[in-house]
Write a structure and sequence with these properties.
- The structure is a homodimer of 302-residue chains.
- The first copy, chain A, is α/β, with parallel strands linked by helices.
- The first copy, chain A, has 13 helices and eight strands.
- Chain A has helices spanning 2-7, 23-35, 49-58, 68-72, 87-94, 112-118, 165-177, 187-213, 217-225, 231-235, 242-251, 253-276, 279-298; strands at residues 13-19, 39-45, 63-65, 77-80, 103-106, 128-133, 154-157, 181-184.
- In chain A, strands 3-2-1-4-5-6-7-8 form an eight-stranded mixed β-sheet, with helices on both faces.
- In chain A, strand 5 (103-106), helix 6 (112-118) and strand 6 (128-133) form a beta-alpha-beta unit.
- In chain A, helix 5 runs parallel beside helix 6 (112-118) and helix 8 packs across helix 12.
- The longest helix of chain A has 27 residues, at 187-213.
- Chains A, B: InterPro entries: 6-PGluconate_DH-like_C_sf (IPR008927), NAD(P)-bd_dom_sf (IPR036291), PDH_C (IPR046825), PDH_N (IPR046826), Preph/Arog_dehydrog (IPR050812), Prephen_DH (IPR003099).
- Chains A, B: This is prephenate dehydrogenase.
- Chains A, B: Residues 14-302 form the Prephenate/arogenate dehydrogenase domain.
């Protein structure tokens, strides 16, 4: 399939519909418009008239639709770019209006909960290809997007066993044309990986900020003065959007709670070692941190 | 006192002895040598003949002594720059050899445990001024130091109630001449502030690296691939020296375990809110993180 895609010079899709042109959705539109080989015609859809007006002003799409059913009717690919908590609902709403053979995709940060909620609405004649582009900024809305958002970032894909490989290949190719690197994985594995690399670090960052905020006034003001000693690194990721992160935490509940439980056991073991002066244990745990840091540097991720 | 110091143009000390010319100690020597107004004569002392040889090669001091008792004998200020775990022992060893009126100082990252261990050896005629310059790199030894290490960094001072203000003023002035900003605080308060701004973040960073390292091989390798999503920020501070951090954790045991216990309660509350879908609680905790982040930016610490 990939060969035939590469061989053809026409766009991947005749008509691509983006439902929810926020940071991610409007970045897809901008890149597709700039690239020219992704879709012949771009449709943007949002239930908010303000967002529709703004998308039209910015000239991000060939058509701007407020009604999702009209937006998807003739599309050969529909990508749901609404918040994680709304993906299954919007998907179930538009699926009956999609034409047979069209591909349904979405860009949520969690996978299993979306799959479970959307499963009853899925159609055998509409391939479903869930994706997770690991890119973003602290801004949101159609003005926040930009064409290079996905350059050199990962996009994880979690197709179902019944998803036709040709559909997955098309979406993989689309993300390559967006500038992203792709990896296909199982949805449960996806949720565990994201729980440890992203969701747990964010949860810990939010939590330590709250712990500091609860301290007596004098200490709290000094936390701000002396934050350079380590605390500051934790606040960098604590500046993210509260509603987005609430939805991610709730939608990746199982994997996140499991990783947090493992972390809490490890932190308790460290606390016990400090209380009882177990020097060997403490040094061993610290050396693991250095080891992972070195691996990241070798892996050019640091 | 400060007025009289500023008025005089001569060096603050006739003879300044640095015990343990590692990263911090050799940076003090380099700055003092470059500045000229800190000490008329610099003495460096290390029990390791290799370190003594290297310090002499680098020309960091006017005299290099392997015997601490000889190094301190005629000094009017002695600064212990040995690891936190050795400060009390070295202090008790050199105190009887110091001349009356000379000032004893040290640069450990924790305060209460040093004070408790050193208290029986303190002399009423030798003022003790504990300090904590909040500066460092991941390197150590006499080659690692540099004259600008303390520029614009904080140095916290925790004099005893019986420390003569004139002695504290002299040490404050010395740190200003090193380029640092200073703040005087109570030793117990110091240990709590450092526990939350530095020691707890480091403990959490070491721990999450260990948690990731314990995952099944496949997930672990993907942690490295996808670390940019938040995990990476935590590893930056996890690259620190294991023995130094072991000593800090053990010497600030009480304050660190208290902050960790508060943090664990907060993390458990967050876990419970996620399990039961308490959206309001989750959003409230995340918004505190953003609030602290904004305060840091306003405070020019981020």
């Amino acid at each position: 399939m990939t060969d035939s895609i590469t061989a053809s010079s026409g766009p991947l899709f005749r008509r691509l519909a983006i439902i929810g042109p926020g940071l991610i959705g409007s970045s897809i539109l901008r890149r597709a418009r700039q690239d020219g080989t992704i879709a012949a015609r771009l449709v943007a859809c949002d239930i908010s008239p303000d967002v529709c007006r703004r998308v039209a002003e910015l000239g991000l799409a060939d058509e701007v639709e407020q009604d999702p059913l009209r937006a998807v009717a003739d599309a050969d690919c529909v990508i749901l770019c609404v918040p994680v908590g709304a993906i299954a609902e919007v998907g179930a709403h538009v699926l009956p209006a999609m034409k047979p053979g069209a591909i349904l995709s979405e860009v949520g940060s969690t996978k299993l909960s979306i799959l479970t909620a959307l499963a009853p609405a899925l159609r055998p004649d509409v391939p479903f290809v869930p994706t997770h582009p690991m890119a973003g900024t602290e801004h949101s809305g159609p003005d926040a997007g930009f064409a290079t958002l996905f350059d050199d970032r990962w996009c994880l894909l979690t197709p179902l066993p019944e998803t036709p490989p040709a559909a997955t290949d098309l979406i993989v190719e689309m993300w390559h044309r967006m500038g992203a690197r792709t990896r296909v994985m199982d949805p449960a594995h996806h949720d565990r990986v994201c729980a440890i690399v992203s969701h747990l670090p964010h949860l810990l960052a939010f939590t330590i900020c709250g712990t500091a905020d609860d301290l007596a006034d004098e200490t709290r003001s000094e936390v701000l003065d002396f934050a350079a000693s380590g605390f500051r690194d934790f606040t960098r990721i604590a500046a993210s959007d509260p509603v987005m992160w609430r939805d991610i935490f709730l939608n990746n509940r199982e994997a996140l709670l499991e990783m947090l439980a493992r972390f809490m056991e490890d932190a308790q073991a460290m606390a016990r070692a400090i209380r009882w002066g177990d020097e060997e244990f403490i040094v061993d745990r610290i050396e693991r941190g250095r080891h992972i840091r070195r691996s990241l540097i070798e892996n050019r991720q640091a």
